Amino acid sequence: MAINFNKAEFVLSAVKSDTFVRDGRPQVTFAGRSNVGKSSVINRLLGRKNFARVGATPGKTNQINYFRIDEKIYFTDLPGYGYAKVAKEERDRWGRLMESYFAAEGLITLGVLIVDARHKPTADDVTMCNWFKGTGCPLIVVANKLDKLKAREIEPNLALIRKTLELNETTPLIPFSAEKGTGKTELLAAITRYCEE
Known about the structure:
By secondary structure, the chain is α/β, with parallel strands linked by helices.
């Protein structure tokens, strides 16, 4: 299946489980900490500047956003997590939304977890990774902000990410720079491959 990733449209924002999209198209679900550059990664993949909103304040996405790509698949953008300045009731609502999303049968075709290439994954990253593993769907981990690392830091950092998230050998870990576009080709190829299966 050839997918034109430049042909993307915003479909809807789901704030409760009865608005989740269930039309049989594959769904590629993106998750990441509030300040990890998730929107920037999505924008880079789609060749757009401000398609997925890039918030000046982390934690701005508090619903699940659906983008239809080339009428063939969805990019599903989950709310960023782990941002402290959000009120407790907002965090609780976020938690309930996430739980109902991950508990829904057959929604996720492929999980894409975005982590910061510079740092050891946080406890929240580990939790999110385990949620993806719990669905049984394939997972790709994207180590964003690669451009902020020195060349000699890359391999040890990737090894630390793999170890902390307890990724098996078959789980792709793609070094990525939303800023420079590094890793874009690899990630799009992997997404296309999983959506064909």
